[in-house]
Amino acid sequence: MLLVLCVDLDDDVGRKTGASTPVVGADAVREAAVDLAESDPEDSDLNVMFQGISTYNDLREEGDEEVEVAVVTGVEGSDIKANRAIGDEIDTVLASLQTGEEVRAIIITDGAQDESVIPIIRSRMPIDGVQRVVVRQAQNLESMYYTIKQVLADPETRGTILVPLGILLLIYPFVVIAGVFDIAGAVVLGLISALLGLYTLFRGLGLEDTIDTTADRVRNGLYAGRATLITYVVAFALVVVGGVQGLALIETAEAAVDDPLAIVTAAAAFVHGSVQWFAAAGITSSLGQVTDEYLAGRFRWRYLNAPFYVVAIAIVLYGLSGFFLPPAEGIVPLSLPDLAAALTVGTLLGVLSTLTFAVVESRYPAEPDPA
């Protein structure tokens, strides 16, 4: 058996005519269509109902199988409630059909919005076809409206489309305001272009997710009292100071020699001038991390290796870079014995710290984390 099913998602038939739904049977559907035409001649659901009657008549003339036509409606304002209401009305229609045959549906709609109920219908009966009825003068107009409505309802898509459009629309009024205050229009255009470019770059690279995640971590760290927030800020400041000191030592070395510095010498001067500051930054950040691990109950003795490793690496780099420095005023290059001593001390410090904390951890193991 074929069921020609006319779909009215927002219940125009029930609201405007007062008819009880679902409407089953060709005569009842025709009467409801006439009532709707008298109430609102411009309603697009008129086309759906008359198309349903036309399809019903064509199928009956073919005479291959039994045919019935019905109108099912949803509710206004909520697609979820409308889908549920249509599902209930379809169940009512199927229960009223006195047939032992399998019922298959031909769906008649007036646009993409009504077609959102197709999965609801398919869960109850097979679908042989879908006919979309749209007034010729407004072909695809309702579907385009529904698509735009759905796109603008999505927060992510809305931000992607409307924010750049809003910035572009602000260009002219900003330029006019800038002219009133004797500000060059090129400056305003440059600033707006930079803002739009940064926004596009952030959206294209997906950096907004990274920024949101970082902001959440910082906020959670502030509320949780994490020591790493302070130690990371201090470590960053130490790195900046170290970079400045390294560049200053490069300038001192350049002033002490007549020829331009070789790349190896310039790198050695930068490392020698900055390594102690970088080491202080590494020790500060590692101690902050160890503190947070201890407060969170995840402390392990081997975590204390980190500051000792930083000191060991700093000693090695300080001795190695000092060995390649040129002798000059304000610069004291290290001799070969000094280099050997630095390498030995750095190696011993790293090895001894590893062995020491491994032994301590074996004798005083931390309690396992609770499951």
From TrEMBL:
Transmembrane segments: 159-177, 183-202, 223-250, 262-287, 308-327, 339-360
Cited InterPro entries: DUF373
Alphabetic keyword roster: Membrane, Transmembrane, Transmembrane helix
Pfam families assigned to the protein according to its UniProt record, in alphabetical order: DUF373
Coiled-coil regions listed in the entry: none
PANTHER family reported for this sequence: DUF373 FAMILY PROTEIN (PTHR38815:SF1), HYPOTHETICAL MEMBRANE PROTEIN, CONSERVED, DUF373 FAMILY (PTHR38815)
Descriptive protein name: DUF373 family protein
Organism the protein comes from: Halonotius terrestris
